[in-house]
Amino acid sequence: MKTSVIYITAVLTLLGLTVSRQAKTFNLSENKNFQIAQSGQVYRCIQQRNQTYIVPGITGAYIRYGACFIPVKLGRCMEKTVFDKAFVPCGTDPGDRRYYNVRPLGSGTPFIIY
Question: Fewest CB atoms within 10 A around its CB: which of 36, 67, 83, 91?
Answer without folding.
Answer: 83
